[in-house]
Write a structure and sequence with these properties.
With 335 residues, this protein is an alpha/beta fold. The chain contains ten helices and eleven strands. Strand 4, helix 2 and strand 5 form a beta-alpha-beta unit.
Length: 335
């Protein structure tokens, strides 16, 4: 082998490493620097983190490389000792790492350590801070509301099957995903305390994917398109509410194939989907640029029907109490 050939590694390369976004960005920074310098290089990944067509560290022939570069993260741990042993013939360089103990064999095993922080030395900016942008533009952001509960539906429940199917599908998407919940709990910072806190998050999303009925309602209040998933065989409250609000992007538990999910998501992300969400928000009385104050009375198609329900409530409160015999007519009001 003639000339330098570098294998770029990091915590995203080793079997039991904890890969972070910053680690991957730091590796991109190193790749760019070597490429600009005209130095031959490959990047190795763990089996979990390896992208399609990428090089797995387990498949690397160490004899093909003159140098090993380890980028970012703490310079400590058994994984680094294993790299030192496996690539013993290579010149080994650590860059952008944190050195906690300069005498650690994981540190001293490198021929050179270019630290971002170490005892007795001023810190340097992390390599991720100047990483090149990815090959694709920033993806849309999806808020995801899943649920495994709703035992009230009994034998019609298909929640576990839907969660398995949708979970596998979500894992293959290129969009940014936020795991959300409609539950409120002031004891847990991971959950909102007020509806307004959740509404603030939803309003910043590009699309919502939800098994929860209120995920559908709250998204449309903010004019955010919704891929609604009904986990109840034959349709439950998600389907019923989508029909009541005039929202078309709802799939039943038997419709959830990857191709149908992909097609419906793309519609939600399209101009047509965004226009439909703004129209739905308008029918609910919310302008596209955000909800009015809570005290405002807004005339809308949906609001008129809700008002009808409230009128029935007031009428029922004022009326003499009837026997609980189920003989009263069930009045169903539709938009």
């Amino acid at each position: 082998m003639t000339g330098a050939r570098v294998l770029v590694t990091g915590w995203s390369s080793v079997l039991h490493g904890e890969a972070t976004a910053g680690d991957v960005l730091a590796m991109r920074t190193v790749e760019r620097a070597l490429r600009v310098a005209g130095i031959s290089q490959d990047t190795a990944w763990s089996a979990v983190m390896r992208p399609p067509g990428g090089l797995a560290l387990d498949d690397v022939d160490p004899r093909q490389y003159s140098h090993l570069v380890f980028a970012c993260g703490p310079a400590s741990g058994e994984a680094l000792l294993e790299l030192h042993g496996r690539f013993a013939h290579c010149t080994r360089i650590a860059v952008g790492v944190s050195v906690l103990d300069p005498s650690d064999p994981a540190v001293t095993g490198f021929h050179r350590v270019i630290a971002r922080d170490r005892p007795g030395a001023p810190p340097r900016p992390d390599l991720a801070s100047v990483a090149p942008a990815g090959a694709t533009p920033m993806p849309p952001v999806l808020g995801v509301f899943l649920t495994g509960g709703q035992r009230e539906y009994g034998a019609r429940r298909r929640h576990e099957d839907v969660m398995d199917t949708v979970g596998s599908w979500l894992g293959g998407l290129g969009e940014g995903l936020l795991d959300l919940d409609t539950r409120l709990d002031p004891r847990d910072w991971r959950l909102p305390t007020t509806p307004e806190q959740l509404q603030a998050v939803i309003a910043r999303l590009d699309t919502v994917v939800t098994m929860r009925m209120h995920g559908l309602v709250l998204a449309l209040r903010s004019a955010v398109p919704v891929l609604a998933l009904d986990p109840v065989e034959g349709g439950g409250k998600v389907t019923a509410q989508a029909r009541a609000l005039g929202w078309p992007a709802v799939l039943g538990s038997g419709d959830l194939t990857p191709s149908v999910l992909d097609e419906t998501l793309q519609w939600c992300l399209s101009t047509e989907g965004r226009h439909a969400a703004r129209y739905a928000a308008g029918r609910m009385g919310w302008p596209a640029d955000g909800p009015p104050g809570a005290e405002d009375a807004v005339a809308s198609a949906v609001g008129a029907v809700v008002d009808g329900q409230l009128d029935e409530l007031v009428e029922a409160v004022r009326a003499p109490r009837a026997a609980c015999d189920g003989t009263d007519e069930l009045r169903i009001t539709r938009v």
